[in-house]
């Protein structure tokens, strides 16, 4: 109860701060404001907000909130946006229920046994339910499987942009700026248990598995690049026969020529492909882009192999993320 009261008092002071700043900015526009020591600039707004709410608010949310006020003085953003969330206005929503929709996270748990080096970033996390493990790939080239034990591999390359698991061949697949990495995590060898498919002409940004093949020795993956192309790569066990390797002496990977693989590609967007996904329930693939004209594509995977029109729609400034809910039968996009 005390925490709730403290939050309510802080919220009232924050609202007064916003009102005062809006009044000041309106006077500045009309030329009636004289600068003094009580002026509220960004630095003062930041310091006051941080003093009121502490570490519960993030720097980028404070900056975004301040920018929204400056750009629209007639309608200030909802106070909840300072926490990185937005509550839709409703006449039936009381102020008490509004407060309860903000989650204040004061206690955080830190994992001390890190498998990722400092100044590295996790770029992709994939859950493999039927094998009960989770795969992560870091930007600087560390691919990790979290099981009852931790299995990891340090790749020869850096800047991994995505990863997934191919179920039939039972490999971990990851994409980098110019290569495709295939990791045989089951191999007992510490080295030479991975494959690199190259060269790839454009920068690969995302990857996902196409879960429609029942062939025990065949898998397909979708990839997107920085030029708006979506790729369909089909792999079989024959692609990984020893005689096709071009392994370097110091490399832990066997190098495979991309020309030996069945790779289909089609340009679907005019900007970076942010995400690709195969939606099994719809038997369709989907891709999104920051492209404002061809922002989201949803169609049969056969469209990658022909030039027939695809089902697409546009969103101003594009689509950065999306997902599909099978129970509700809806696709949700975020721009």
TrEMBL record:
Protein name listed in UniProt: WDR64 protein
Database matches in InterPro entries: WD-EF-hand_domain, WD40/YVTN_repeat-like_dom_sf, WD40_repeat_dom_sf
UniProt xrefs under SUPFAM superfamilies: WD40 repeat-like
Species lineage: Eukaryota, Metazoa, Chordata, Craniata, Vertebrata
Species name: Smithornis capensis
Gene symbol of the encoding locus: Wdr64_0
Protein keywords: Repeat
Keyword Repeat: yes
Presence of keyword RNA-binding: no
